[in-house]
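Before a colleague's protein record goes any further, I have to sign it off. My question to you is simply how this chain folds and whether the tokens agree. I do not need a full report, just your reasoning and any doubts. This is what I was given:
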Amino acid sequence: MSAIMGGAGRRGRRAGFIVGLMAIAGMLAACSSSGSDASASYDDGYASGGDVGAYEESADDGGTAPSAQDRAVIVTGEMYMTVEDPVATADQVATIVQSAGGRVDGRSETAPDEYYGGAAALTLRIPADELDDVLERVRALGTVDELRTESSDVTTQVTDLESRISTLRASTKRIEGLLTEAKDIGDIIALENELSSRQAELESLEARQRGLDDQVSMSTIYLSLTTEPVVIVDDSPDSFWDGLVSGWNALVAFVSGALVVIGVVLPWLALAGILAFGTMLVVRAKQGRARRSAAPQVETTGQAAQESEPSQS
């Protein structure tokens, strides 16, 4: 009798456990279905990196409109500027953005050459509340050729994500509580599978929430910096008169250049001439002294020769 009652008690507890599990599953399914319609477009678009502006229409469907302070808006834009030195200006822009609490997510540079003045491109992430001030400071660095900004209201998506995350967290805790009470291996496996599924979904939603929060809090601006184009003028002559004028100008330029060279070299030539003249004087003086010293010897030799001739005869 006690064995029968024990078996009935176990079956009753298991039946009650299964009923409770089915109730939780039903509640989770209801919560998921209630949020699926409002977030379907967001899940498909935001997860695939689509345009957030496509979801603005769903923000007006039902409910009370949030205040301006509570609205979540993503701001993106493009800015094209002409500056004298793109690389140096890019360094200044990076300093301005970082001083405002922002960052540079991408940067590319092109070195200047004889035909092109160089270029730089930056992807700026600027705090939303500092965007206007930063853009004004960047404007002062050159000439703004074009500036475009777009705003996308994602308030509904933010609210929907918060609701779904809150529901999933509550259901996950409830399943964890049931898992600690489960005794049957089949119930444990079923609960663990359900818990893993809910945790994976929760982590995915939290990742989306972080990405959306980053886009709302940090505006994205693409900045392009270039210089004035280099104008190449073809001044080659195309007629006889132009050729004559060009030849005369070339001759004048050559003569002017030659005179400049002569003017530079002339002092050195004068110095060289003075040194050469001085050296010549010194050499001639030495030669004169040598001739004068050699003359008495020649006379003495001649007299000796004359005196020796009679004696020989």
User: Anything to note?
Assistant: Strands lie at 73-82, 103-110, 119-127, 143-153, 218-226.
